[in-house]
Hints:
The chain is mainly alpha-helical. 73% of the residues lie in helices and 0% in strands. It contains ten helices and no strands. The longest helix has 28 residues, at 2-29. It is globular and about 60 Å long. The N and C termini lie far apart (58 Å).
Amino acid sequence: MGEIRNAERTRKAILQAAKEEFFEKGYTGARIESIAKRAGINKQLIYHYFKGKEQLINETIEDFMASLPSGNFTLPADPRDIAEFRFNVNVNHLMEFLKFTAWEAVDTVPENVNGEEHRRRVLQSYNEDMKAKQEKGQVPKELDPALLTLMLSSLTVYPLLYSSVTRMITGRAPDDPEFQQRWAQFLGLISERIFKMDVEQE
Length: 202
């Protein structure tokens, strides 16, 4: 029993160290040697638990996603609240992960890594949620649900990731509470414009 607990502890330590390494340096920049050093273990021990870097990144992201409160991925019933909700989740729970995803724009990585399957399931669930709201008359029929999901993703991620652009345009950093409050309110106003007509017909 003690051996099992030790193995679980070691595995958890590796995943935590891998999360820090991958999120800080991206897939290409991350090194197994650095992960071992962060975890305080021998490099060869990592290969005892994981086949290689690809398995490690996938399991790291799966573990990270599983650690988040389940309510983070349950969208509000009213489409007018989705953008503000997703922005607040990003600010409060996903900043490290979002910085990691920025590496994907410049990284050359193998297919089916970076927890792609898990992430696709979450994003496709947002598409399905938007389609369901459209069928209820809460979303204008002429708007493509997938493109709406992409738009909301952009509006709730871009200002946080591209801090220099946010600062140059607004004069405030994205981690400034005043900016976050103003942007959340702005997202609410934009959402009112997009979804207002059909919601009022209920």
